[in-house]
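Researcher: I've been going back and forth with a colleague about how Putative enzyme related to lactoylglutathione lyase might be arranged in three dimensions. Neither of us has a model we trust, so I'd like an independent prediction. The organism is Saccharothrix ecbatanensis, in case that matters for your notes. Sequence below.
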Amino acid sequence: MATRWCDVVVDAVDPAALARFWSALLERPITGESADEVDVALADGMELVFGTVPEPKSVKDRVHLDLASSSPEDQAAIVARAVDLGAKTVDVGQGDVPWVVLADPEGNEFCVLEQRDEYAHTGPVAAVVVDSFDPPAQAAFWAGVVGLPVIGEGADFASLAREAGPSLEFVRVNEPKVVKNRIHLDVAPPADGDLLIEVARLEAWGAVRADVGQIDVPWVVLADREGNEFCVLTPR
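Model: Here is an independent structure prediction for Putative enzyme related to lactoylglutathione lyase. You can compare it with whatever you and your colleague have in mind.
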């Protein structure tokens, strides 16, 4: 059994409040809560995890969520619910597009997509989208990390698909990464796997160790080939 993508982790100044926003927006339950972490269930065992950080958001996120909708009416209802909960519409240079760009109460951008058949199986989160200088290369790297197939690829876009839950997508941008990502992925070896052996495999695949201030933690922080941080958790 391969290492799997298990969590989407969001830095938050107030994780409890931000988790309540996303739980209500996605209509998904909060499944765990402590002083510095709150978890919201997504699909297929994946969780949206909100962890405490002291610093507020300062630049556009390089990783964001796309939300699925089933019709124009459903898209409008999701947007209205988001705004009622505290989201705001934002301009990230998207121009005239069929999706709506919003920001959550801590400023994290997300998109509410128009109905698309390819996201009918994902649940409320259609995709986790990562800004990239080279989307095909990033998709190939992450396919090797978590064993998901590349289902779509072009010069400016590439996508990995799960049987259930959000896709992992890469879109071309020209802006460099300048700060630690506020949204990152957690991956974990299977229950019979070995953390250090898996970390060594990922380093051989092109990942590098990353220092984000972690001290004496049971997981290992790595960065992919474009510097996006991710955590390798203990086997599970």
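Researcher: What would you highlight for our discussion?
Model: I'd start with this: The longest helix spans residues 72-85. After that, consider the following. Helices lie at 15-26, 72-85, 135-146, 195-205.
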